[in-house]
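Subject: Sanity check before I submit

Could someone independently write out the structure tokens for this chain? I want to compare against mine line by line before I put it in a report. The sequence has 177 residues.
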Amino acid sequence: MPQIIQITSEAIQAQIRRLLPSQQGFGIDMEASNIITPIIDITPTAEGSQLPRFLQEAFDISVTTFDDSNNSSSTIVNTPGFHRIFGVSTVVVPSSGQRANQLRITDGATTKTFYLHGSGDAITSEAITNPFDVVVFIRAGESVTTVADFESRIGGSVRQVADVTGNLVNPSGFNFE
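---
Independent answer below. Compare away.
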């Protein structure tokens, strides 16, 4: 026999008000039922007009690769928009002091490090490897640079996943049928 149960949860009601602004003034409590109700997903991903995120961010022939080592640095992104940066950092621990590889965002006047892989207190001459997979947003006039310390290496690939206004950039050559 079907049952209807009153739900009083401010957290759920706040989520409904946030997701459905037209329901903000709706004063009736929510209810739950033990009757199975089919749900039809009408999102762009379900209908096939938009790729799921894990497919949309796939690397393709248009990726840019980078490989810096031994006190080198380079600019790997300078196109406005959202970019996926995927790679590996390897640092060799020195006999004294520390070493670090970095990914940085700069606008020419200010530089911020958003990825730092350092040698820390590891055993001397040990190579420490750390993978990374990040998505960054770059505005006009900004760029992402790598910095590889002495006897260290940082390398990987970059692909733009959305333009500066958030329009998704599908993998090169992909077309919906």
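---
OP: Matches mine. For the report I'm noting this point. The beta strands are 4-7, 30-33, 64-69, 72-77, 81-92, 100-106, 111-118, 127-138, 143-148, 152-162.
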